[in-house]
Amino acid sequence: MGQKVRPTGFRTGIMVDWLSSWYANKADFADLLLEDVKIRKFIKKKYRGAGLSKIRISRTREKVVVYIHAARVGVIIGKKGAEVEKLTKSLENLTHRVIEVKTIEVNRPELDPQLVAESIADDLAKRQGFRRAMKKAMETTMENGAKGIKIQLAGRLGGAEMARCEIGMMGSIPLSTLRAKVEYGFYEAPSAQGNIGIKVWINNGDYLAPEGNTDGTDAQTGKVPKKPARRGQGQRDSR
Questions:
Q1: Can you list the domains of the chain with their CATH numbers?
Q2: What is the pTM of this model?
Q3: Could you report the per-residue pLDDT of 14-32, keeping only the tens digit for each?
Q4: Whether residue 4 has pLDDT greater than 80
Q5: CA angle 48, 8, 4 (to 5 degrees)
Q6: Mean pLDDT lowest for which of 42-56, 128-142, 169-183, 211-225?
Q7: Cβ neighbours of residue 62 under 8 Å, at least 6 residues apart?
Q8: Where are the beta strands (DSSP E) in 110-213?
Q9: CB-hemisphere CA count at 13 Å for 97?
Q10: How far is Cα of residue 131 from the mean position of the Cα atoms in its chain?
């Protein structure tokens, strides 16, 4: 069986940019990397209800710029920008560097795999059945224009004694097609029986789509035609 690679890592540097864009020498690289982890953990813990999609970090010699992609940016900005100022000061105290925070609104959270995974976790926390939560998320995503969605839940589903895996899928998820805009999200939903892992793949069309085509179906025409079977091969196989 083929092992499925994470689609974001597979496309990083080709179709998708890095979430951390900076350069450092060998002596400082590990410290800056851990600093990025601290910044992301702090923001995710503080603004869980803001619908965080991703956090990008870029560095210069003068300052660190943090780009927060969220569905509800008003929670982060606050009244007259008071909340974002508090966040900036907190991050500066955490890192001892000059920080600039920029917020970017996610206009269609139904097509963001990270936000879809978190919405399923919220439904499970409300004691909703896991199959119903999966079906609801898949239907909502497809209704909003996605080309395909795949959801995988793993853990003690429904309070079962033995952990198992449940998979639901609608449309197409071409994981190996680099130009296909397949995005991935993961979230762990805590429950009384243990954590439930939620993985979501969403196909939002192509990065480089020709005019009049956004679903990547024309990639099938580029396949090398199969060689005709050798003469008499079918007779030998039937023996």
A1: 7-105 (3.30.300.20), 109-218 (3.30.1140.32)
A2: 0.80
A3: 888 899 999 999 999 999 9
A4: no
A5: 115
A6: 211-225
A7: 98
A8: 148-155, 164-171, 180-189, 196-206
A9: 17
A10: 21
63-98 pLDDT, tens digit each:
999 999 999 999 999 998 899 999 999 999 999 999
Pairing of strands 52-59, 20-21: parallel
Q: What does the alpha-carbon distance between residue 8 and residue 89 come to, in Å, rounded to a whole number? A: 32
Which residues, 6 or more positions from 181, have their beta carbon under 8 angstroms from its beta carbon?
Answer: 15, 203, 204, 205, 206, 207
Is pLDDT at 114 greater than 60 in this prediction? yes
CA distance 111 to 176: 20
- For 26, the token pair is 């060998």
Output the CA angle 85-34-15, nearest 5 degrees: 85
In 3D, which of 105, 104, 115 has the Cα closest to residue 49?
115
Where b means 16+ CB within 10 Å and e means fewer, 76-101 reads: bbeeeeebbeebbeebeeebeeebeb
**What is the predicted pLDDT for the residue at 217?**
41
